[in-house]
Protein backbone atom coordinates (compact mmCIF):
# COMPACT_ATOMS: atom_id res chain seq x y z
CA UNK A 1 0.00 0.00 0.00
CA UNK A 2 1.22 3.48 -0.84
CA UNK A 3 2.52 4.95 2.45
CA UNK A 4 1.58 8.49 1.40
CA UNK A 5 -1.97 7.40 0.64
CA UNK A 6 -2.13 5.56 3.96
CA UNK A 7 -1.07 8.68 5.85
CA UNK A 8 -3.67 10.74 3.92
CA UNK A 9 -6.42 8.32 4.91
CA UNK A 10 -5.28 8.43 8.52
CA UNK A 11 -5.36 12.23 8.54
CA UNK A 12 -8.84 12.22 6.99
CA UNK A 13 -10.09 9.76 9.60
CA UNK A 14 -8.60 11.89 12.38
CA UNK A 15 -10.30 15.01 11.02
CA UNK A 16 -13.64 13.21 10.89
CA UNK A 17 -13.20 11.85 14.42
CA UNK A 18 -12.30 15.26 15.83
CA UNK A 19 -15.14 16.96 13.99
CA UNK A 20 -17.90 14.56 14.96
CA UNK A 21 -16.41 13.65 18.34
CA UNK A 22 -16.24 17.29 19.39
CA UNK A 23 -19.72 17.88 18.04
CA UNK A 24 -21.00 14.99 20.14
CA UNK A 25 -19.24 16.31 23.23
CA UNK A 26 -20.73 19.77 22.73
CA UNK A 27 -24.18 18.25 22.19
CA UNK A 28 -23.83 16.32 25.45
CA UNK A 29 -22.84 19.48 27.29
CA UNK A 30 -25.93 21.37 26.12
CA UNK A 31 -28.37 18.45 26.45
CA UNK A 32 -31.00 19.54 29.03
CA UNK A 33 -31.56 15.98 30.25
CA UNK A 34 -27.85 15.68 31.02
CA UNK A 35 -28.00 18.95 32.96
CA UNK A 36 -31.04 17.66 34.86
CA UNK A 37 -29.30 14.37 35.69
CA UNK A 38 -26.26 16.28 36.93
CA UNK A 39 -28.51 18.45 39.08
CA UNK A 40 -30.14 15.40 40.65
CA UNK A 41 -26.72 13.92 41.40
CA UNK A 42 -25.57 17.11 43.14
CA UNK A 43 -28.85 17.29 45.07
CA UNK A 44 -28.56 13.71 46.31
CA UNK A 45 -24.94 14.21 47.33
CA UNK A 46 -25.57 17.40 49.31
CA UNK A 47 -24.41 20.10 46.86
CA UNK A 48 -27.55 22.24 46.45
CA UNK A 49 -25.72 25.25 44.99
CA UNK A 50 -24.33 23.16 42.16
CA UNK A 51 -27.72 21.49 41.73
CA UNK A 52 -29.42 24.88 41.38
CA UNK A 53 -26.92 25.87 38.72
CA UNK A 54 -27.52 22.69 36.71
CA UNK A 55 -31.31 22.87 36.98
CA UNK A 56 -31.29 26.49 35.84
CA UNK A 57 -29.16 25.56 32.84
CA UNK A 58 -31.55 22.71 32.01
CA UNK A 59 -34.51 25.11 32.24
CA UNK A 60 -32.78 27.61 29.97
CA UNK A 61 -32.41 24.87 27.35
CA UNK A 62 -35.93 23.48 27.85
CA UNK A 63 -38.21 25.93 29.70
CA UNK A 64 -41.31 23.75 29.29
CA UNK A 65 -40.19 20.74 31.32
CA UNK A 66 -41.97 20.54 34.72
CA UNK A 67 -39.46 18.03 36.11
CA UNK A 68 -36.68 20.59 35.81
CA UNK A 69 -38.70 23.09 37.87
CA UNK A 70 -39.45 20.49 40.54
CA UNK A 71 -35.73 19.72 40.83
CA UNK A 72 -34.96 23.42 41.07
CA UNK A 73 -37.59 23.85 43.77
CA UNK A 74 -36.18 21.01 45.84
CA UNK A 75 -32.65 22.42 45.59
CA UNK A 76 -33.86 25.89 46.57
CA UNK A 77 -35.76 24.40 49.52
CA UNK A 78 -32.54 22.76 50.71
CA UNK A 79 -31.01 26.24 50.73
CA UNK A 80 -34.03 27.44 52.76
CA UNK A 81 -35.06 29.75 49.91
CA UNK A 82 -38.67 28.78 50.39
CA UNK A 83 -40.20 31.69 48.50
CA UNK A 84 -38.19 30.90 45.38
CA UNK A 85 -38.86 27.19 45.84
CA UNK A 86 -42.60 27.92 45.97
CA UNK A 87 -42.43 29.74 42.64
CA UNK A 88 -40.51 26.87 41.04
CA UNK A 89 -43.07 24.31 42.21
CA UNK A 90 -45.96 26.49 41.04
CA UNK A 91 -44.33 26.72 37.62
CA UNK A 92 -44.03 22.92 37.49
CA UNK A 93 -47.76 22.63 38.21
CA UNK A 94 -48.57 25.32 35.67
CA UNK A 95 -46.73 23.30 33.03
CA UNK A 96 -48.34 20.03 34.13
CA UNK A 97 -51.44 20.32 36.34
CA UNK A 98 -51.50 16.52 36.69
CA UNK A 99 -48.06 16.39 38.31
CA UNK A 100 -49.68 15.65 41.67
CA UNK A 101 -46.45 14.84 43.52
CA UNK A 102 -45.38 18.47 43.19
CA UNK A 103 -48.27 19.52 45.42
CA UNK A 104 -46.58 17.81 48.37
CA UNK A 105 -43.38 19.77 47.66
CA UNK A 106 -45.33 22.98 47.19
CA UNK A 107 -47.29 22.45 50.40
CA UNK A 108 -44.08 21.94 52.39
CA UNK A 109 -42.43 25.02 50.86
CA UNK A 110 -45.49 27.17 51.59
CA UNK A 111 -45.61 26.05 55.22
CA UNK A 112 -41.89 26.65 55.68
CA UNK A 113 -42.34 30.08 54.09
CA UNK A 114 -45.00 30.87 56.70
CA UNK A 115 -48.09 30.32 54.54
CA UNK A 116 -49.48 27.45 56.58
CA UNK A 117 -53.09 27.53 55.40
CA UNK A 118 -52.07 27.59 51.74
CA UNK A 119 -49.66 24.76 52.40
CA UNK A 120 -52.35 22.59 54.00
CA UNK A 121 -54.66 23.29 51.06
CA UNK A 122 -52.01 21.92 48.71
CA UNK A 123 -51.64 18.76 50.81
CA UNK A 124 -55.43 18.34 50.82
CA UNK A 125 -55.62 18.90 47.07
CA UNK A 126 -52.96 16.23 46.57
CA UNK A 127 -54.78 13.80 48.88
CA UNK A 128 -58.11 14.33 47.11
CA UNK A 129 -56.64 13.91 43.62
CA UNK A 130 -57.69 10.47 42.31
CA UNK A 131 -54.46 10.20 40.29
CA UNK A 132 -52.25 10.61 43.38
CA UNK A 133 -50.13 7.41 43.61
CA UNK A 134 -49.16 8.07 47.25
CA UNK A 135 -52.12 9.57 49.15
CA UNK A 136 -50.61 8.24 52.39
CA UNK A 137 -47.78 10.78 52.06
CA UNK A 138 -50.21 13.67 51.54
CA UNK A 139 -52.26 12.55 54.56
CA UNK A 140 -49.10 12.23 56.64
CA UNK A 141 -48.04 15.73 55.60
CA UNK A 142 -51.40 17.10 56.72
CA UNK A 143 -51.06 15.28 60.03
CA UNK A 144 -47.61 16.76 60.55
CA UNK A 145 -48.88 20.27 59.79
CA UNK A 146 -51.63 19.98 62.40
CA UNK A 147 -49.23 18.39 64.89
CA UNK A 148 -46.88 21.38 64.54
CA UNK A 149 -49.85 23.65 65.33
CA UNK A 150 -50.60 21.52 68.45
CA UNK A 151 -53.96 20.55 66.96
CA UNK A 152 -53.39 17.01 68.19
CA UNK A 153 -56.88 15.69 67.48
CA UNK A 154 -56.88 16.68 63.80
CA UNK A 155 -53.28 15.56 63.48
CA UNK A 156 -54.16 12.13 64.87
CA UNK A 157 -57.05 11.84 62.42
CA UNK A 158 -54.81 12.45 59.41
CA UNK A 159 -52.08 10.15 60.67
CA UNK A 160 -54.69 7.39 61.05
CA UNK A 161 -55.84 8.08 57.51
CA UNK A 162 -52.27 7.72 56.30
CA UNK A 163 -51.83 4.44 58.15
CA UNK A 164 -55.07 3.09 56.67
CA UNK A 165 -53.83 3.90 53.16
CA UNK A 166 -50.48 2.16 53.66
CA UNK A 167 -49.92 0.10 56.79
CA UNK A 168 -46.23 -0.49 55.95
CA UNK A 169 -45.46 3.27 55.89
CA UNK A 170 -43.65 3.97 59.18
CA UNK A 171 -43.81 7.78 59.37
CA UNK A 172 -47.51 8.16 60.24
CA UNK A 173 -47.16 5.78 63.19
CA UNK A 174 -44.52 8.12 64.61
CA UNK A 175 -46.71 11.16 64.06
CA UNK A 176 -49.76 9.40 65.48
CA UNK A 177 -47.82 8.49 68.61
CA UNK A 178 -46.71 12.12 69.05
CA UNK A 179 -50.28 13.34 68.60
CA UNK A 180 -51.62 10.81 71.11
CA UNK A 181 -48.95 11.80 73.63
CA UNK A 182 -50.04 15.41 73.09
CA UNK A 183 -53.58 14.31 73.95
CA UNK A 184 -52.30 12.61 77.11
CA UNK A 185 -52.92 9.09 75.79
CA UNK A 186 -49.44 7.62 76.25
CA UNK A 187 -50.46 3.95 76.50
CA UNK A 188 -52.43 4.26 73.28
CA UNK A 189 -49.39 5.86 71.65
CA UNK A 190 -47.29 2.87 72.73
CA UNK A 191 -49.87 0.49 71.27
CA UNK A 192 -49.78 2.30 67.91
CA UNK A 193 -45.98 2.15 67.78
CA UNK A 194 -46.12 -1.57 68.55
CA UNK A 195 -48.53 -2.05 65.65
CA UNK A 196 -46.27 0.00 63.40
CA UNK A 197 -43.27 -2.08 64.38
CA UNK A 198 -45.07 -5.25 63.33
CA UNK A 199 -45.64 -3.70 59.91
CA UNK A 200 -42.16 -2.18 59.58
CA UNK A 201 -39.92 -4.24 61.92
CA UNK A 202 -36.65 -2.82 60.62
CA UNK A 203 -37.50 0.84 61.17
CA UNK A 204 -35.10 2.38 63.73
CA UNK A 205 -37.29 5.43 64.23
CA UNK A 206 -40.16 3.29 65.51
CA UNK A 207 -37.81 1.42 67.83
CA UNK A 208 -36.37 4.66 69.18
CA UNK A 209 -39.77 6.24 69.83
CA UNK A 210 -41.07 3.05 71.41
CA UNK A 211 -38.02 2.86 73.67
CA UNK A 212 -38.56 6.46 74.77
CA UNK A 213 -42.20 5.85 75.64
CA UNK A 214 -41.49 2.57 77.41
CA UNK A 215 -38.97 4.44 79.55
CA UNK A 216 -41.47 7.21 80.20
CA UNK A 217 -43.97 4.78 81.73
CA UNK A 218 -41.32 2.83 83.67
CA UNK A 219 -41.11 -0.22 81.42
CA UNK A 220 -37.32 -0.13 81.48
CA UNK A 221 -36.60 -3.70 80.37
CA UNK A 222 -38.70 -3.22 77.24
CA UNK A 223 -37.21 0.23 76.76
CA UNK A 224 -33.71 -1.22 76.75
CA UNK A 225 -34.63 -3.90 74.22
CA UNK A 226 -36.20 -1.33 71.88
CA UNK A 227 -33.32 1.12 72.16
CA UNK A 228 -30.75 -1.61 71.60
CA UNK A 229 -32.72 -2.58 68.51
CA UNK A 230 -32.61 0.98 67.23
CA UNK A 231 -28.86 1.13 67.87
CA UNK A 232 -28.35 -2.14 66.01
CA UNK A 233 -30.47 -1.08 63.02
CA UNK A 234 -28.92 2.39 62.72
CA UNK A 235 -25.49 2.27 64.42
CA UNK A 236 -24.03 5.33 62.71
CA UNK A 237 -27.22 7.27 62.04
CA UNK A 238 -29.23 9.77 64.09
CA UNK A 239 -31.65 7.19 65.52
CA UNK A 240 -28.85 4.89 66.61
CA UNK A 241 -26.84 7.70 68.17
CA UNK A 242 -29.85 8.97 70.11
CA UNK A 243 -30.68 5.44 71.23
CA UNK A 244 -27.11 5.05 72.50
CA UNK A 245 -27.42 8.23 74.54
CA UNK A 246 -30.73 7.12 76.06
CA UNK A 247 -29.37 3.67 76.92
CA UNK A 248 -26.75 5.33 79.13
CA UNK A 249 -29.51 7.10 81.05
CA UNK A 250 -31.68 4.04 81.67
CA UNK A 251 -31.78 2.65 85.22
CA UNK A 252 -29.74 -0.51 85.58
Description:
The protein has 252 residues and is mainly α. Among the domains are: 139-186, no CATH class; 202-252, no CATH class. It contains 14 helices and no strands. It has helices at 3-30, 32-44, 48-61, 66-78, 82-95, 101-112, 116-128, 135-148, 152-165, 171-182, 186-199, 204-216, 220-233, 238-249. Helix 3 packs antiparallel against helix 4 and helix 5 packs antiparallel against helix 6 (101-112). The chain is globular and about 65 Å long. The termini are far apart. Residues 1-7, 12-20 and 22-28 have low confidence and may be disordered.
Describe the structure concisely for a colleague:
The protein has 14 helices and no strands. The termini are far apart. It is mainly alpha-helical and 252 residues long.
